[in-house]
């Protein structure tokens, strides 16, 4: 029973990873990261159900909050990038190398 | 009054040197300061030598805790083993300031720092303290070669620095290992060599630690085949730096072996002795032969110095009192002769603007005093009886024969090889016809003569009345040899036990 | 009450941050004064920390917020290091922004917030708390990295850092979730009890711990999670880089140590794993560093190597009675050296950081001998040459490693520090053994210079009188 | 008379002090205005003469002692003492060293006096006498040393002096090369000496490392060790006394001023080896195998160098080879345990060889440094005194009775025969013939016949008194010294042998006088044959012949020098240049270079990994992550 939830969250997580390493659009990447975080949240919820304690829920809430903050910053960065180059392709931003 | 003498001898030069480096002074002022300091040290050294009783224990001891948690102390002391090395470091220094006056304050500062650090390394009886000074020693050399060196000094600097630091970092790991195994065997932390010598490490990681120690010292000495930094460094370095390197610093490598490796690693030492002595002898022959075909006088001297270091190191590995005493004596003897020779080469270069043997000739007629002094130093370095070079070499060869006739025969060839390159060089530089370059060669000025004279006399005195020196160092040497034998005999029987101990410790 | 006391430094800094934000409303207030104000607060926090942590006992307050935070001597020490870093960074910022004018008061406020996060991180005894602290810290740092909005490289740096940081953060959360699933709690105490109860490696626990390690490895730029660090350090402005390199590393390692020291069984499980990570990190870092021609990048890479040394210390810690003294000392030693380097860089760098390459510093010793000497001292300290702090740090680490029977690791560490001599010496050589091509004129306030020389003193002071925590 | 022993220390000290004084004077003045030669000469002669008289005092004191306690030791100070090894700077005078002492100081003084004349006008007058004094001092240390180590001091000292004196005219490279050659070859011998000493010490040295204690402990030696010691020491002797294979330096050593050749390279220094073997007679007598080897090496050297001598054209070279050959005799003597005979030959040889050299010197002096015998001739009218003295010397050298050489040489040959070394005896007789031949070849070519170089002949003149007086003194010695050791056959009682008895370990075999007479006749006949052949060929003057075949080989000394050069010297230098040009930069250093190269390459490749694409960095993370998880799945369960 718990396994299904876990499997789902793992799948989501892996999708997130895939997204991060394959996609070049900044937005998509950040969304993939959100996906990973939510996978984690899912796992938390499921486990808290398993342990019959409310801690999991609380933790999930916390993580969401943090994720939101991160997202806000991410958006700011996105705007900044767009102001600089006018496109959101991560490959464009590779001055720092070597 | 004299109990803090060692600390003074260490920190007076270092502080003075730092002052010279940091504060804006004129070169001449700096030189005067350096001169005064080095003379003070000289007299303290002589005083110390006279006061030294030589009853095979540490004297002028000084011991204050530094880092209690690891039992590291600020521990200084002199015994028969370190006495002559200390003398070499303390006595020869004023020469440099007397003879050369063309350098900047930074140079003199570095010289002084080097002296302080070397004296520190020699007197330290705590392994960590020794290591600290050992590393500090390198920095002034690094700057002296890099800043004031010859044409392609950068390569030389990098080479010597990386080499030496590589060695010393390995040593760091090794000495920590020693401390830890003492902690595991006796349940308390200490890096004091006197207590550490209670250890008898062998097998397992001890081999590794031993090898790391030996690499460090082999690089500094240098032992074949770790000598490759030497010719470049000695040749590129300004004369005074070469003097410091060859006359004193190299000796500290050998000294380190005697002081820190032998007492702790009796078993491994006994096991590797043959290999090590081969390294020494082969190095002696190799560098000696290499010296024969050098065109550059300084480079020739560099190789000859390396060659002699091989024989000096050999004395340690033969593990008998004659050889060990020979080494300890030869350390000082070689310091005087080689040091003076390098300074003379420096003088030649200063006067002739060239070190090429081919450019010189017939100087003996222009400068009889210079030639005589040079000849005496040279004969000392080829080990002619009556000079101090003979006593050491003879004792070492004698001891080597006890250790292994084969080694002894190889070692004996030093008598021949040394003469070959030295005579050849002497012929080309001092004999034969003068050329327009050497025609107006200036003989030693009165000042120079007076500053060299003491050392020349010392060379002869040490050759004619060596007993005065030997009777101070011999007890310590015999004691160490006795201990070495006791240990290695006892251990060789049951080497298996410590090995298994080691393995237990590490899990 | 004790909660309050132990959090007092944190509160002080936080208050200072808020105060600055409010002050930011006044236009007439100079940015420089912001620096000074923040310095005051850091100093205050530092001393409070010192007073509070002065106690002899090992764990001072272990039950703050019913076990979510705990302060031990180790965390105190880490806190001290962090405050110190904040202080000196402010000093160098003061001069740096005198030349590069893109700073506002908020900069210092944000910096102080991230310091809060760091200090919280050192005390965290619970995974999600740790995560939050981590994020507070990171968000602040992200902003500081990208603070110069006009510079593309800065923007790129923040992009990379943010993206990968969030990526790693996701791993952290996942790890926390798995551990929660396994142990039924995210408190370290509970986890250790659980492990003690059933020592057989529980797959959820292992997986979770592994994920958390991933995140931490990212933050400390362990190999192969190091790739970002070089670029980000390069993109960020010099003082910020120094701040990241020191304070952030201290905080994260504090967390790492607290976490790995849960219980000896747990630590024992991961020794081999950490062994290899440490080795890879040291050598990978060296190989990255050797190729660099930009000093900031080189220092970033050398930071990787130092993380490797710290990992050695982690391998060698004794989880039964964990004091973290070695790690604490090494963090302090490393921090002093690195801060000094970046302080020097931030006043020598000039406007727009025009001097960042090895060649830009050629002949510095001829023109500014004292600065060159200071830089040399810092480099030697990083290289671990006595009698500097770096040497004692290295000495402690080797000692601990060998006492823990990790001879091989100690030797490898030594070898890697031999390799690292290379690029440290390279800078010394280009400073001393070449002739000056320019006059290294610097304008702006002298605070950075002062801090540089103060730090030089510290390097020797800590080296010669190692305060073993 | 006990305090007499305390003079012993002075004997070597005086010349050394003289050397130092003169040396300093010369060193400080030679570039400016030098002191007068008279002053130098006076100073130079003080030391030797004084020590000669001291030697006399000591000698007679020694003679007054009862036979069994004829040894005086004077321990000046402890030189060095390490563990069991205790070396005293102590001097020992016993019959052997006493005798040596006498004639070293005596001949030494003579040479000093002679040199005043010979070196007149040389700008390095002072330096020369400094070296000469130094040499005498070292030689005396060598002789008086109470143990091998002290002997080694003198041993090396004389080596140094011969180097300095050979390369005295240092402006031309030839001389310096000759000097180097001498020093290096001597060093090769010294290596043997040092090793021999070391072996000896570890074997029996712990009971005291001076001759007397060693003699007492000889019985403790195992044969192997003993023979090893003997041979190693003999290598040293070969170096110093120019025996096969180390004889090559001596002929070149004639590059030095003639008095040097006379004093050092004929009379005293080169006999040091013989003296050393005699000193260690207690060992060579104990281990007869070693003795035999010594004897054979000696006699073969005698033969070889005699062959060389027959074809040389440089007057000094001829004498040089005759020296080598005579040294061969001496070694043959000490080898066959005829130590006293060997020493006696040293003694007589010192006289007649010094005489011959000095005579040659005055001839060369007269002909303005012309040394080629083929440029001389008929000089006996021009310089009669030189002629007469040299004739005596030649007869002595040839071993013509009743001149001194005859007795000593014959004693050696007889002992060889008596101790059953018939082969050595035969060769010895043969060599005697050859010696007679080349000696008189020299005499005839130089003094008889017609002048070959007329204008040189015209300028020739008798040498000044200061040079001829020593000649006459020496001639007297050469003629009469034989009487000192008159064999019982002629009613003599072998003064020297009996005198030397206490300090040598030898036994006199008893053979019928018949055999002795026969042997004697044989050698006399050989000598006569030699002389007649020489007269036939050169008596009435002959022109320089074209050497062919064997003669050519002989003239070129069988190309031994060239062979040595090709086999030892050149390869040595070759290796040297190989090391410094190739090995050092490319091989020994290569490992380090290679390592650094690898390091840098790896660095650049890692640099390339920093592509700057954030996705790729994430990819690295994921790769690392998956590898780590693999590792974990391996390590845990």
UniProtKB/TrEMBL annotation, chain A:
<dbReference type="GO" id="GO:0030964">
    <property type="term" value="C:NADH dehydrogenase complex"/>
</dbReference>
<comment type="function">
    <text>NDH-1 shuttles electrons from NADH, via FMN and iron-sulfur (Fe-S) centers, to quinones in the respiratory chain. The immediate electron acceptor for the enzyme in this species is believed to be ubiquinone. Couples the redox reaction to proton translocation (for every two electrons transferred, four hydrogen ions are translocated across the cytoplasmic membrane), and thus conserves the redox energy in a proton gradient.</text>
</comment>
<dbReference type="GO" id="GO:0048038">
    <property type="term" value="F:quinone binding"/>
</dbReference>
<dbReference type="GO" id="GO:0042773">
    <property type="term" value="P:ATP synthesis coupled electron transport"/>
</dbReference>
<dbReference type="Pfam" id="PF00420">
    <property type="entry name" value="Oxidored_q2"/>
</dbReference>
<keyword id="KW-0520">NAD</keyword>
<keyword id="KW-0997">Cell inner membrane</keyword>
<keyword id="KW-1133">Transmembrane helix</keyword>
<comment type="subunit">
    <text>NDH-1 is composed of 14 different subunits. Subunits NuoA, H, J, K, L, M, N constitute the membrane sector of the complex.</text>
</comment>
<keyword id="KW-1003">Cell membrane</keyword>
<keyword id="KW-0813">Transport</keyword>
<protein>
    <recommendedName>
        <fullName>NADH-quinone oxidoreductase subunit K</fullName>
        <ecNumber>7.1.1.-</ecNumber>
    </recommendedName>
</protein>
Automatic annotation (TrEMBL), chain B:
<dbReference type="InterPro" id="IPR001750">
    <property type="entry name" value="ND/Mrp_TM"/>
</dbReference>
<feature type="transmembrane region" description="Helical">
    <location>
        <begin position="328"/>
        <end position="348"/>
    </location>
</feature>
<dbReference type="InterPro" id="IPR003918">
    <property type="entry name" value="NADH_UbQ_OxRdtase"/>
</dbReference>
<dbReference type="GO" id="GO:0012505">
    <property type="term" value="C:endomembrane system"/>
</dbReference>
<feature type="domain" description="NADH:quinone oxidoreductase/Mrp antiporter transmembrane">
    <location>
        <begin position="124"/>
        <end position="415"/>
    </location>
</feature>
<feature type="transmembrane region" description="Helical">
    <location>
        <begin position="270"/>
        <end position="293"/>
    </location>
</feature>
<feature type="transmembrane region" description="Helical">
    <location>
        <begin position="128"/>
        <end position="148"/>
    </location>
</feature>
<feature type="transmembrane region" description="Helical">
    <location>
        <begin position="72"/>
        <end position="100"/>
    </location>
</feature>
<feature type="transmembrane region" description="Helical">
    <location>
        <begin position="32"/>
        <end position="52"/>
    </location>
</feature>
<keyword id="KW-0812">Transmembrane</keyword>
<dbReference type="GO" id="GO:0048039">
    <property type="term" value="F:ubiquinone binding"/>
</dbReference>
<dbReference type="Pfam" id="PF00361">
    <property type="entry name" value="Proton_antipo_M"/>
</dbReference>
TrEMBL record, chain C:
<feature type="transmembrane region" description="Helical">
    <location>
        <begin position="395"/>
        <end position="425"/>
    </location>
</feature>
<dbReference type="GO" id="GO:0008137">
    <property type="term" value="F:NADH dehydrogenase (ubiquinone) activity"/>
</dbReference>
<keyword id="KW-0520">NAD</keyword>
<comment type="subunit">
    <text>NDH-1 is composed of 14 different subunits. Subunits NuoA, H, J, K, L, M, N constitute the membrane sector of the complex.</text>
</comment>
<feature type="transmembrane region" description="Helical">
    <location>
        <begin position="298"/>
        <end position="317"/>
    </location>
</feature>
<feature type="transmembrane region" description="Helical">
    <location>
        <begin position="445"/>
        <end position="468"/>
    </location>
</feature>
<dbReference type="GO" id="GO:0048038">
    <property type="term" value="F:quinone binding"/>
</dbReference>
<dbReference type="GO" id="GO:0005886">
    <property type="term" value="C:plasma membrane"/>
</dbReference>
<comment type="function">
    <text>NDH-1 shuttles electrons from NADH, via FMN and iron-sulfur (Fe-S) centers, to quinones in the respiratory chain. The immediate electron acceptor for the enzyme in this species is believed to be ubiquinone. Couples the redox reaction to proton translocation (for every two electrons transferred, four hydrogen ions are translocated across the cytoplasmic membrane), and thus conserves the redox energy in a proton gradient.</text>
</comment>
<feature type="transmembrane region" description="Helical">
    <location>
        <begin position="6"/>
        <end position="26"/>
    </location>
</feature>
<feature type="transmembrane region" description="Helical">
    <location>
        <begin position="329"/>
        <end position="349"/>
    </location>
</feature>
<feature type="transmembrane region" description="Helical">
    <location>
        <begin position="240"/>
        <end position="261"/>
    </location>
</feature>
Automatic annotation (TrEMBL), chain D:
<feature type="transmembrane region" description="Helical">
    <location>
        <begin position="128"/>
        <end position="146"/>
    </location>
</feature>
<feature type="transmembrane region" description="Helical">
    <location>
        <begin position="40"/>
        <end position="62"/>
    </location>
</feature>
<dbReference type="InterPro" id="IPR003945">
    <property type="entry name" value="NU5C-like"/>
</dbReference>
<feature type="transmembrane region" description="Helical">
    <location>
        <begin position="293"/>
        <end position="311"/>
    </location>
</feature>
<feature type="transmembrane region" description="Helical">
    <location>
        <begin position="225"/>
        <end position="250"/>
    </location>
</feature>
<feature type="transmembrane region" description="Helical">
    <location>
        <begin position="152"/>
        <end position="171"/>
    </location>
</feature>
<dbReference type="GO" id="GO:0015990">
    <property type="term" value="P:electron transport coupled proton transport"/>
</dbReference>
<feature type="transmembrane region" description="Helical">
    <location>
        <begin position="468"/>
        <end position="490"/>
    </location>
</feature>
<dbReference type="GO" id="GO:0016020">
    <property type="term" value="C:membrane"/>
</dbReference>
<dbReference type="GO" id="GO:0042773">
    <property type="term" value="P:ATP synthesis coupled electron transport"/>
</dbReference>
<protein>
    <submittedName>
        <fullName>NADH dehydrogenase subunit L</fullName>
    </submittedName>
</protein>
<dbReference type="InterPro" id="IPR018393">
    <property type="entry name" value="NADHpl_OxRdtase_5_subgr"/>
</dbReference>
């Amino acid at each position: 029973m718990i396994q299904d939830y876990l499997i789902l969250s793992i799948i989501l997580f892996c999708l997130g990873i895939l997204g991060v390493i394959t996609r070049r659009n900044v937005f998509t990447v950040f969304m993939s990261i959100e996906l990973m975080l939510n996978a984690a949240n899912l796992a938390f919820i499921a486990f808290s159900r398993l342990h019959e304690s409310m801690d999991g829920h609380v933790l999930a809430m916390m993580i969401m909050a943090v994720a939101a903050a991160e997202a806000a910053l991410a958006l700011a960065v996105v705007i900044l990038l767009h102001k600089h180059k006018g496109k959101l392709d991560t490959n464009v931003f590779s001055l720092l190398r070597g | 009054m004299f109990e803090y003498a060692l600390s003074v001898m260490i920190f007076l030069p270092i502080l003075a040197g730092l002052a010279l480096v940091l504060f804006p002074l004129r070169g001449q002022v700096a030189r005067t300061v350096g001169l005064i300091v080095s003379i003070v040290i000289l007299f303290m050294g002589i005083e110390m030598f006279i006061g030294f009783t030589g009853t095979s224990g540490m004297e002028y001891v000084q011991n204050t805790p530094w880092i209690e948690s690891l039992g590291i102390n600020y521990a200084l002391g002199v015994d028969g083993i370190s006495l002559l090395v200390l003398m070499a470091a303390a006595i020869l220094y004023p020469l440099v300031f007397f003879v050369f006056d063309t350098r900047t304050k930074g140079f003199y500062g570095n010289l002084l720092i080097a002296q302080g650090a070397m004296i520190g390394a020699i007197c330290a009886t705590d392994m960590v303290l020794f290591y600290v000074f050992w590393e500090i020693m390198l920095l002034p050399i690094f700057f002296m070669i890099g800043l004031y060196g010859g044409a392609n000094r950068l390569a030389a600097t990098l080479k010597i620095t990386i080499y030496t630091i590589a060695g010393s970092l390995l040593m760091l790991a090794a000495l920590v290992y020693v401390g830890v195994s003492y902690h595991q065997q006796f349940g308390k932390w200490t890096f004091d060599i006197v207590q550490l010598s209670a250890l008898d490490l062998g097998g397992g990681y001890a081999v590794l630690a031993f090898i790391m120690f030996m690499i460090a010292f082999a690089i500094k000495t240098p032992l074949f085949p770790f000598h490759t930094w030497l010719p470049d460094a000695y040749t590129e370095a300004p004369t005074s730096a070469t003097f410091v390197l060859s006359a004193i610093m190299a000796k500290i490598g050998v000294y380190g072996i005697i002081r820190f490796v032998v007492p702790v690693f009796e078993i491994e030492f006994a096991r590797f002795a043959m290999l090590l002595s081969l390294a020494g002898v082969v190095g002696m022959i190799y560098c000696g032969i290499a010296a024969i075909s050098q065109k550059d006088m300084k480079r020739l001297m560099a190789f000859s110095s390396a060659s002699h270091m091989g024989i000096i190191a050999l004395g340690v590995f033969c593990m008998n009192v004659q050889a060990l005493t020979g080494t300890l004596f030869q350390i000082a003897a070689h310091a005087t002769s080689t040091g003076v020779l390098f300074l003379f080469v420096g003088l030649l270069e200063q006067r002739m603007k060239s070190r090429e043997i081919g450019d010189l000739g017939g100087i003996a007629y222009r400068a009889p005093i210079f030639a005589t002094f040079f000849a005496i130093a040279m004969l000392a370095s080829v080990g002619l009886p009556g000079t101090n070079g003979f006593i050491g070499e003879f004792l070492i060869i004698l001891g080597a024969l006890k250790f292994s006739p084969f080694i002894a025969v190889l070692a004996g060839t030093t008598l021949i090889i040394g003469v070959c390159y030295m005579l050849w060089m002497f012929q080309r530089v001092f004999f034969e016809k003068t050329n327009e370059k050497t025609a107006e060669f200036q003989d030693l000025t009165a000042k120079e003569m007076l500053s060299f004279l003491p050392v020349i006399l010392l060379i002869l005195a040490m050759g004619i009345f060596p007993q005065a020196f030997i009777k101070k160092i011999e007890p310590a040497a015999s004691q160490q040899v006795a201990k070495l034998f006791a240990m290695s005999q006892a251990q060789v029987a049951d080497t298996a036990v410590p090995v298994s101990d080691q393995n237990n410790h590490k899990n | 009450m004790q909660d309050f006391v132990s959090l007092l430094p944190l509160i002080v800094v936080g208050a200072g941050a808020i105060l600055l934000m409010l002050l930011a409303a006044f236009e007439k207030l100079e940015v420089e004064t912001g620096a000074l104000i923040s310095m005051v607060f850091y100093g205050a926090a530092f001393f409070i920390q010192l007073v509070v942590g002065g106690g002899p006992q090992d764990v001072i307050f272990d039950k703050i917020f019913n076990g979510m935070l705990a302060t031990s001597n180790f965390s105190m020490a880490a806190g001290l290091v962090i405050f110190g870093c904040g202080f000196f960074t402010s000093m160098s910022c003061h001069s740096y922004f005198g030349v590069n004018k893109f700073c506002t008061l908020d900069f210092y406020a944000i910096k102080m917030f991230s310091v809060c996060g760091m200090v919280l991180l050192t005390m965290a005894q619970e995974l999600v708390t740790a995560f939050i602290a981590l994020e507070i810290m990171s968000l602040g740092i992200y902003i500081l990295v990208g603070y110069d909005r006009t510079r593309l490289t800065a923007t790129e740096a923040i992009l990379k850092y943010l993206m990968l940081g969030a990526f790693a953060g996701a791993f952290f959360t996942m790890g926390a979730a798995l551990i929660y699933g396994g142990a039924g709690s995210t408190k370290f105490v509970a986890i250790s009890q659980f492990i003690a109860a059933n020592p057989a490696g529980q797959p959820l626990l292992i997986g979770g711990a592994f994920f958390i390690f991933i995140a931490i490895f990212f933050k400390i730029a362990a190999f192969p999670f190091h790739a970002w660090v070089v670029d980000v350090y390069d993109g960020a402005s010099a003082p910020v880089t120094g701040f990241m390199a020191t304070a952030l590393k201290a905080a994260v390692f504090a967390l790492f140590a607290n976490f790995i020291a849960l219980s000896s069984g747990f630590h024992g499980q991961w020794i081999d794993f950490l062994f290899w990570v440490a080795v890879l990190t040291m050598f990978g870092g060296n190989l990255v560093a050797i190729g660099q021609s930009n000093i900031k990048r080189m220092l970033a890479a050398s930071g990787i190597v130092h993380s490797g040394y710290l990992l050695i210390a982690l391998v060698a810690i004794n989880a039964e009675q964990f004091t973290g003294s070695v790690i604490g000392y090494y963090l302090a030693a490393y921090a002093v050296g690195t801060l000094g380097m970046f302080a020097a860089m931030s006043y020598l760098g000039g406007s727009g950081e025009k001097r960042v390459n090895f060649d830009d510093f050629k002949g510095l010793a001829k023109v500014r001998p004292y600065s060159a000497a200071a830089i040399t001292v810092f480099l030697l300290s990083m290289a671990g040459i006595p009698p500097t702090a770096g040497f004692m740090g290295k000495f402690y680490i080797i000692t601990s490693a060998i006492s823990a029977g990790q001879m091989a690791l100690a030797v490898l560490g030594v070898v890697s520090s031999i390799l690292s001599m290379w690029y440290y010496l390279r800078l010394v050589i280009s400073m001393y053994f070449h002739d000056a091509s320019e006059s290294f004129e610097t304008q702006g306030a002298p605070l950075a210079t002062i801090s540089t020389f103060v730090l030089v003193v510290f390097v020797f002071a800590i080296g010669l009188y190692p305060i073993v925590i | 008379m006990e305090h007499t022993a305390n003079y012993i220390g002075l004997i070597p000290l005086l010349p050394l002090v003289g050397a130092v004084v003169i040396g300093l004077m010369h060193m400080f003045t030679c570039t400016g205005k030098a002191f007068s030669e008279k002053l130098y000469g006076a100073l130079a002669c003080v030391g030797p003469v004084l020590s000669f008289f001291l030697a006399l005092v000591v000698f007679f004191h020694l003679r007054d002692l009862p036979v069994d306690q004829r040894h005086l030791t004077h321990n000046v100070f402890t030189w060095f003492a390490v563990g069991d090894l205790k070396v005293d700077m102590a001097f020992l005078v016993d019959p052997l060293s006493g005798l040596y002492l006498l004639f070293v100081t005596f001949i030494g003084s003579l040479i000093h006096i002679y040199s005043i004349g010979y070196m007149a006008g040389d700008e390095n007058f002072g330096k020369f006498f400094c070296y000469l004094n130094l040499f005498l001092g070292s030689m005396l240390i060598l002789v008086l040393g109470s143990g091998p180590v002290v002997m080694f001091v003198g041993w090396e000292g004389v080596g140094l002096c011969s180097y300095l004196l050979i390369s005295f005219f240092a402006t031309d490279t030839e001389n310096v090369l000759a000097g180097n050659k001498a020093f290096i070859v001597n060093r090769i011998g010294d290596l043997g000496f040092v090793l021999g000493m070391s072996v000896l010490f570890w074997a029996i040295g712990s009971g005291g490392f001076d001759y007397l204690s060693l003699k007492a402990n000889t019985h403790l030696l195992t044969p192997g060790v003993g023979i090893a010691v003997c041979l190693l020491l003999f290598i040293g002797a070969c170096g110093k006394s120019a025996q096969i294979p180390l004889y090559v330096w001596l002929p070149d050593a004639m590059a030095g001023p003639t008095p040097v050749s006379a004093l050092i390279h004929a009379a005293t220094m080169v006999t040091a080896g013989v003296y050393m073997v005699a000193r260690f007679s207690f060992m060579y007598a104990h281990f007869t195998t070693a003795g035999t080897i010594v004897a054979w090496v000696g006699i073969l050297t005698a033969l070889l160098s005699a062959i060389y001598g027959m074809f040389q054209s440089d007057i000094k070279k001829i004498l040089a080879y005759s020296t080598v050959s005579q040294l061969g005799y001496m070694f043959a003597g000490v080898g066959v345990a005829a130590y006293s005979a060997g020493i006696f030959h040293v003694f007589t040889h010192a006289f007649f060889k010094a005489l011959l050299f000095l005579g040659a010197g005055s001839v060369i002096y007269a002909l303005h440094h012309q040394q080629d015998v083929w440029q001389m001739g008929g000089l006996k009218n021009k310089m009669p005194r030189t002629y007469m003295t040299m004739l005596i010397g030649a007869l002595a050298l040839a071993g013509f009775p009743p001149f001194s050489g005859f007795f000593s040489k014959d004693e050696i040959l007889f002992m060889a025969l008596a101790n059953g070394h018939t082969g050595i005896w035969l060769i010895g007789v043969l060599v005697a013939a050859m010696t007679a031949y080349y000696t008189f070849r020299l005499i005839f070519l130089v003094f008889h016949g017609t002048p070959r170089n007329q204008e040189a002949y015209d300028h020739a003149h008798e040498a000044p008194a200061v040079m001829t007086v020593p000649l006459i003194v020496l001639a007297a010695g050469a003629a009469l010294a034989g009487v000192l050791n008159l064999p019982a056959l002629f009613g003599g009682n072998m003064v020297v042998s009996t005198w030397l008895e206490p300090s040598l370990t030898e036994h006199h075999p008893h053979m019928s006088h018949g055999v002795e007479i026969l042997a004697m006749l044989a050698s006399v006949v050989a000598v006569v044959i030699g002389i007649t052949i020489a007269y036939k060929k050169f008596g009435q003057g002959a022109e320089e012949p074209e050497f062919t075949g064997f003669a050519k080989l002989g003239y070129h000394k069988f190309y031994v020098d060239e062979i040595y050069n090709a086999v030892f010297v050149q390869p040595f230098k070759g290796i040297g240049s190989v090391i410094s040009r190739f090995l050092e930069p490319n091989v020994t250093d290569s490992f380090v270079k290679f390592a650094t190269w690898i390091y840098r390459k790896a660095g650049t490749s890692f640099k390339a990994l920093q592509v700057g694409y954030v996705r790729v960095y994430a990819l690295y993370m994921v790769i690392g992550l998956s590898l780590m998880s693999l590792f974990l799945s391996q390590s845990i369960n």
